[in-house]
Design brief:
The protein is 72% helix and 16% strand. With 86 residues, it is of the alpha+beta class. The chain has one domain. Strands 1-2 form a two-stranded antiparallel ribbon.
Length: 86
């Protein structure tokens, strides 16, 4: 709310106003905009983390596949070598 006061003097008119309420609304608007920017930055960071997690998941799956291949090769090698006697 803005308060206004007018005084009529012999020398002329004096007008006074208090705009504290407008300043309060401006402060709220500024705070809301800052929160919006922060929220957008957090959302971008979460998206980056999700992307990195997907990349890690792919790397882990490739590692699992490689380990399974090595297990198959080890079993085949053991079978081949098992025929020989020392």
């Amino acid at each position: 709310m803005t308060y206004c006061l007018a005084l009529r003097l012999d020398e002329g008119l004096i007008f006074l106003a208090d705009t504290r309420t407008n300043a309060g609304v401006d402060n709220i608007t500024t705070s809301v905009n800052e929160q919006k920017q922060s929220s957008m930055e957090i959302a971008r960071n979460v998206e980056n983390i999700a992307s990195m997690a997907e990349g890690n998941n792919s790397a882990v799956q490739r590692t699992v596949d490689a380990v399974q291949d090595m297990e198959r090769l080890a079993a085949a090698l053991k079978s081949s070598v098992g025929r020989f006697k020392v």
